[in-house]
Write a structure and sequence with these properties.
The structure holds 2 protein chains of 2 kinds. Chain A is α/β, with parallel strands linked by helices. Chain A contains 8 helices and 6 strands. Chain A has a single domain, classed as Alpha-Beta Barrel (Aconitase, domain 4), CATH 3.20.19.10. Chain B contains 15 helices and 19 strands. Chain B has helices at residues 6-12, 39-48, 76-92, 107-113, 145-154, 179-190, 205-208, 212-221, 236-241, 306-319, 345-355, 373-381, 384-391, 441-450, 456-463, and strands at residues 15-18, 24-27, 30-33, 58-61, 95-97, 122-125, 139-142, 156-159, 163-170, 198-203, 229-232, 268-273, 281-282, 290-291, 334-337, 365-368, 393-395, 417-420, 435-438. The chains are: A alpha/beta, B alpha/beta.
């Protein structure tokens, strides 16, 4: 269940940050969802010798505790790896504000309660500027009312109703859908008359 | 009844019911799993005490982490992913094509090869390149691990209907232009991410004239546009491709009906002249950064906005290239032919045609990983392996995703430059610090011979 998120916001301005960059492959060989904080943005945070890269925003003193990111266009594009969302959340990220997101990443975020407010490019660019000033970079996000409060201003964001509801209710979608088992069975019976896959056949 | 897009027909025929908030519940005909995006889905089922709804509707394939030199995981963690999938499949009675199985290979190569896709199906898989199945007039899309769990448990997904985009490409394409160049041209024209929130239908004579392998390449890489689904209308080529496969007998299908209706409305339409397409190579770290080999890399002056200038600088810095540099001067260290985008028998034939009687340049490590075990057997029967080996390529005996995402031990080293028939030129994709240039299999072959980025037309003209 997520309604309000507040915290320090960091601007990550580059466009097309893909899920390979968010969670490099060497962290993917796991059968659990845990232990992925080290992997999040690993090659942006650390150099090949494991030394911290001071130029990366989350390594800078004022933003090292950021829980909100303001990001460039098409964030989370590429691979379906949900590890990207798990790792970001384990790093302490609770919301990511952007203009558009990779579709699978967006759905993965919803399933895990990571809030992805969508704003126009002009609003996003204003938020880049606000987030870059350390003393102003504390944002509040209200999921229910779809508002970002930053620098004493309110910015309305978009979020499709189903995602908003999923975040606010925080239900287990697998168990919730299984309450519709009768309807699924009824559909299946008719549908199997047209297409029925049996891999073992 | 109003005219419908192919996408809407596919969604409507799989809709179980509406859900609160505007989502719909869709029924999934067929689900494919791999070893790296499914483990946490199975553990989710076990924690919740929920069984698999319909085990025979799922297929698991080992492909992402396995080595290609020998039949095993290259390290302990990979071996664990593979054995864990074997355990989960046996526990839940799910079919598995594991290492050593003659049907094993890259999931999106294996499924069409086995005849497990026909027009009108809805297919999901924990892999973004599931858009491939749109080539068959089927709806295929990638899902995350939580959705894999939901699908295993209920055979359904909560789905948000996408908007439709039409990409219309007409006219004959120039010699040397392949399906890979067509999709790379679309991506550079429209932009990576331009299709976020869209299902893209590719239409027009340049698309209809493609064989199924070409159509799969186009739909496969449409995800690099941001498309959550890609589609091509079913026709006689589709129908033929569904015959005489191991599973062909179990499906009755009709290609009629799996097209967009005349007058169907698309939220966005893009029109491209097939004659404008040239063989392309990528030069940056996003799939929309590509040019013909004869071109020079853009300069900061070409960039309209400060953000675009910064993005250019960042890409060139990672790629070790200069603005304004001529692409034909760029030397390569590796050549890789493989991946779900371009490793089918047709891809191997096109590369072999160019390599026959020629040699890979000194100092270039050239590797070819056939898309599946069956593809490898077919290529060997045609003698293609000998052409590759004689030219200086390593012909790998095992199949998988390999150096496309380098989760196995086929990893490019820091700073190494790879001419690659794959789908993503992201930072670090083929290895930490590795530099990827995307192109068609024939262009990889040409570049391997030249030792630098090369235009396939240079070699094919010599033959004519």
């Amino acid at each position: 269940m997520v309604n309000k998120v507040s915290g320090i916001a960091a601007a990550l301005t580059q466009p097309n940050v893909d899920t390979d960059v968010i969670m490099p492959k060497r962290f993917l060989k796991t059968i659990t969802r845990k232990g992925l904080a080290d992997g999040a943005f690993a090659d942006l945070r650390f150099d090949e010798d494991g030394k911290t890269r001071p130029e990366f925003i989350l390594n800078q003193l004022q933003w090292q505790d950021a829980s909100i990111l303001v990001v460039g266009n098409n964030f989370g594009c590429g691979s379906s790896r949900e590890h990207a969302v798990w790792g970001l959340m384990q790093l302490g990220i609770k919301a990511i504000i952007g203009t558009d997101f990779g579709g699978i990443f967006y759905d993965n975020a919803r399933k895990n309660g990571l809030v992805l407010p969508i704003v126009d490019e002009s609003v996003r660019n204003s938020l880049f500027v606000v987030a870059a000033e350390a003393e102003k970079a504390v944002f509040e996000i209200d999921v229910e009312h779809q508002i970002i409060r930053a620098d004493a201003q309110d910015f309305v964001f978009e979020m499709d109703p189903a995602t908003r509801q999923a975040l606010l209710l925080g239900q287990d979608e697998t168990l919730d859908t299984l309450k519709l088992s009768d309807q699924i069975q009824a559909f299946e019976q008719v549908h199997h008359g047209k297409i029925k896959v049996n891999v073992n056949k | 009844m109003s005219a419908k897009t192919l996408y809407d027909k596919l969604v409507d025929t799989h809709k179980v019911c509406d859900l609160p908030g505007g989502d719909i519940l869709v029924y999934v005909d067929f689900h494919i799993m791999n070893e790296y995006t499914s483990p946490q889905a199975f553990s989710g089922l076990s924690t919740k005490g929920v069984p698999v709804w319909r085990p025979e509707a799922h297929l698991a394939v080992v492909d992402h982490v396995n080595g290609t030199r020998r039949r095993e995981g290259p390290d302990e963690a990979s071996k664990l992913l593979i054995s864990n999938l074997e355990k989960n499949c046996s526990e839940h009675e799910i079919a598995l094509y594991t290492l050593g199985d003659p049907r094993q290979g890259i999931e999106h190569v294996v499924v069409p090869e086995q005849g497990l896709v026909v027009p009108g199906m809805l297919i999901a898989c924990g892999d973004s390149h599931t858009t491939t199945y749109g080539a068959y007039g089927a709806l295929g899309f990638g899902i995350g691990t939580s959705e894999v769990e939901h699908l295993l448990a209920s055979q359904t997904l909560r789905y948000k209907r996408l908007q439709s985009m039409l990409v219309q490409i007409d006219g004959p394409t120039a010699p040397g232009v392949t399906a890979k160049d067509i999709i790379m041209h679309v991506i550079r024209t429209v932009g990576a991410g331009a299709a976020n929130g869209f299902a893209v239908e590719f239409a027009g004579s340049s698309i209809r004239s493609q064989d199924m392998a070409g159509r799969m390449t186009i739909c496969n890489m449409a995800v690099e546009l941001g498309a959550r689904a890609a589609l091509i209308a079913a026709d006689e080529v589709t129908a033929q491709a569904c015959l005489n496969k191991p599973h062909s007998g179990q499906f009755e299908f009709d290609v009629n009906g799996w097209q967009s209706d005349e007058g169907a409305v698309f939220a966005r339409e893009v029109i491209i002249d097939g004659a404008d397409i040239e063989p392309l190579v990528s030069w940056g770290t996003s799939p929309d950064q590509s040019l013909p080999v004869s071109a020079a890399i853009p300069t900061e002056r070409d960039m309209a906005t400060p953000a675009a200038k910064t993005a250019l600088k960042r890409a060139l810095n990672y790629m070790g290239l200069q603005e304004g540099q001529s692409l034909s001067e760029v030397k390569i260290d590796c050549a890789f032919i493989g991946s779900c985008t371009n490793s089918r028998i047709e891809d191997l034939r096109s590369a072999a045609k160019l390599l026959r009687g020629r040699n890979v340049a000194k100092n270039v490590l050239a590797i070819i990983v056939p898309g599946s075990s069956a593809t490898r057997v077919q290529a060997e029967a045609e003698g293609l392996d000998q052409i590759f080996i004689e030219a200086g390529f390593e012909w790998r005996p095992e199949s998988g995703c390999s150096m496309c995402l380098a989760m196995n031990d086929d990893v490019a080293l820091d700073g190494e430059r790879v001419a690659s028939s794959t789908n993503r030129n992201f930072e670090g994709r083929q290895g930490r610090g590795a530099r990827t240039h995307l192109m068609s299999p024939a262009m990889v072959a040409a570049s391997a011979i030249a030792g630098k980025l090369a235009d396939v037309r240079h070699y094919s003209e010599m033959e004519e």
